[in-house]
Amino acid sequence: MTELLDPTTSSLLRFATVGSVDDGKSTLIGRLLVDTKQLFDDQLDAVTEASIRRGTGEVDLSFVTDGLRAEREQGITIDVAYRYASTPTRKFVIADCPGHVQYTRNMATGASTADLALVVIDAQSGLKEQTRRHCCIAALLGVSEFVVCVNKMDLISWDEQAFRTIASDVAAFTAHLGVRSTTVIPISALLGDNVAERSSASPWYDGPTVLEALEGATAGNWAGAGLHRTSGRLPVQWVIRQVGERRSYAGMVTGAPLSKGQEVVVLPLGQRTTITKIETYDGELETAEPGISVAVHLEGDFDVTRGECIASVDSPPTVTSTLETTVCWFGAQPLRVGDRLRIKHTTQTTLARVTAVDAVVDINSLTLTPATELVENQIGVVHLQTAAPLAVDPYAANRMTGSFVLIDERDHATVAAGLVGLPQILA
Amino acid sequence: MTAQETTVHRPKDTHGVHHLDLLESQAIFILREVAAECERPVLLFSGGKDSAVLLHLAVKAFRPAGFPFPMMHVDTGHNFPEVLAFRDHMVEVLGERLIVASVQESIDRGRVVDPGENGSRNRLQTTTLLDAITEHKFDAAFGGARRDEDKARAKERVLSFRDAFGQWEPRKQRPELWHLYQGKVLPGEHLRAFPLSDWTELDVWQYIAREGIELPSIYYAHERDVVERDGMLLAVSEFVHPREGETVQRLSVRFRTVGDATLTGAVRSTATTVEAVIAEVAGSTVSERGATRGDDKFSETAMEDRKREGYF
């Protein structure tokens, strides 16, 4: 009972499924949720009923996450489904992502907040181009821990040699991507082998099951800290005005903690000041941890507005209006030099012009190829000139201050995900 | 063959931050971001537990100043009196502005047809809601919906785009990366914003316990006259009369969700405290909406179909 009231002990892991269409990502998530008893009776009944009605067998496990009418009709995942699970040792936020190239933007949505990629590969076909693309995007987005499931092992009679071949291909590829940790597991999502329970079909494999690998993974809090910390930053979201008091500046701390009495700089102008008070509705804090929303008071009478950044004087972000970036382009029309777009970076929105398209990433060789435009779902190196200066960090150092989106001015559609700096995986 | 040698099992660590604190901070971040990005937001308040939590988070996001948006209740006219009393009590305590958008008025104005005494007004709410959004020129509406409630909601963005007809098109959702919530829409279009997207039912109850959040009394066990209909226990009231063959029973029950009184079922319960409710929720074998919502039982994709039309 005390545990239920005070769930401090469970650490949260956010992970996203990654891989090509039809390799079994949704089935694996369905299997994992069923075997760890995360589904309610009525939800399982509804999946069973839908499976029988659509003639896809007794229980089509992909229906656990493929909840849209069109997804069930076509047997594919169109958009990310978020599911929540908990085991005695940890809580999980699962983003089950689409594998189809047409829905790469949705895959990137799911992976942008993940700490771990659960990669699924069909044992019959090995590493496909689409799997490479999605692994590449996940690695670019800073996901540094991969659990790779070689699925449908039952269809190749649990051939150990075939598994070894795929495992070494994958290991070479993810090492090239700069992935810190890769675990490769032979599974059958459909039958449940090595998912939540160890399979007797693979006596030659003594590594972790999928569940064990997920329970043993490093926990995240991507928004707050990320893997390579910067010093503390607070992009200002909202100015709180109080009668008889100075204004306070609300936002979420990122990079490293900010403390009362700390010397800070307000960017882009660069005024130096001190944090005199850190407030939450529940009272004052001496120190605010990354990922926590607070309101800070500053010494002196500044006019700080939304979009500005309060940062530690010790290695603050760089203020610039010319950016070298890595862009994943989602627009139907190609991105070209001279294009004008809106850019949203932290809490600031301004205009940006494309001054150069340098290169596009070749997904198979992981090299840069000279280019003059980016077409839909391509990743490339793009230079931007912004109308207002931005306080940026390299994405590899901070996922919050190193990321941006590009927006079409005409219909306000989000057309690109951007990372400050060159792609780390190619460095 | 073992897993690759590169695998290192490090100690678990969420950097010392409680997961309820992370959920709270994220929700506050979303509330502030939408308030800053949108011209005319509104906070939808049903009087249910999720909207009570949302209101609590809005207090944390904007106090000591007032809310930068009004509250709005879409009133089906089929209310539990305890919930209406709670709504009015909260408005008075907070001193914020409440707009009531009435389904009865939509019926009286001929916008929708009265489904009759025993009919549900659930689906009619969509018209009332969209009319109110148009009338007040709202470009964003905060709701307390969570992704763990339903398979269609599991697919929805935190900031969910609605076209000029109020419709949700699940195949054309905007990419939503990191915390870069992008709230611009063309005139006539709007957004739904869901700060509780990543919360589960258990998270909500643990947060209610931790924060001491006030709820309508019907969320805790009490004695009530109910009839069993379509596998649900419906409270006998001015809107729900026993039909032929139905027996009125007096049971100890509580509500897991609060919606239109003609469609919201009670569950058998003796949980009179928040701690007892948490124990029940943690041990439940039936989902929150599965146990209590007739509106989700019309078809395989009942929620998706309603959401496409502009439902909450």
Structure description:
- The complex is a heterodimer of chains A (427) and B (312).
- Chain A has 3 domains: 2-216, 3-Layer(aba) Sandwich (Rossmann fold), CATH 3.40.50; 233-312, Translation factors (Elongation Factor Tu (Ef-tu), domain 3, Beta Barrel); 318-426, Translation factors (Elongation Factor Tu (Ef-tu), domain 3).
- Helix content of chain A is 19%, strand content 36%.
- Chain A has helices at residues 2-5, 25-35, 41-54, 69-74, 104-111, 129-140, 160-176, 210-216; strands spanning 11-19, 81-86, 90-96, 116-122, 145-151, 181-186, 233-235, 238-240, 248-252, 258-259, 263-267, 271-280, 283-285, 287-288, 293-298, 309-312, 318-329, 335-336, 340-345, 348-362, 367-370, 373-374, 379-392, 403-407, 414-420.
- Chain A is globular, with a radius of gyration of 23 Å.
- Chain A starts with a helix and ends in a 7-residue tail after the last strand.
- Chain B folds into 2 domains: 19-202 and 303-309, Rossmann fold (3-Layer(aba) Sandwich); 213-296, no CATH class.
- Chain B is 31% helix and 15% strand.
- Chain B contains 9 helices and 10 strands.
- Chain B has helices spanning 19-37, 49-62, 81-94, 103-108, 125-135, 201-211, 274-283, 288-292, 302-309, and strands at residues 41-44, 71-75, 98-102, 140-142, 159-162, 190-193, 222-229, 232-235, 249-255, 266-268.
- In chain B, helix 2 (49-62) links the parallel strand 1 and strand 2.
- Chain B is globular and about 55 Å long.
- Chains A and B meet through helix 3, helix 4, strand 2, strand 3 and helix 5 of A and helix 1, helix 2, helix 6 and helix 7 of B.
